[in-house]
Specification:
There is one protein chain. 0% of the residues lie in helices and 54% in strands. With 68 residues, the protein is mainly beta. A hairpin with a 2-residue loop joins strand 4 and strand 5. The protein is globular.
């Protein structure tokens, strides 16, 4: 399972972006967050996730915080 860091959060719009260890940014929606409340996430947190194809391109899903 890839891991990375949350780099940008748009809590008012319920989505954000995370960067994988290779530096590639991935979009994620609050519905893809597992085991945490979206509003409690913060930039810089380490996460693990899976990537799935959507109609708008790849996105991160099953996002789980691994470092608080």
């Amino acid at each position: 399972m890839p891991s990375g860091t949350i780099v940008r959060l748009m809590t008012d719009k319920a989505f954000g972006f995370l960067s994988d260890e290779g530096g590639v940014e991935h979009f994620f929606h609050q519905s893809g967050v597992q085991g945490a409340v979206f509003e409690t996430l913060r930039e810089g947190q380490r996460v693990e996730f899976t990537v799935e194809e959507s109609t708008k391109g790849p996105r991160a899903c099953d996002v789980r915080v691994i470092e608080t």
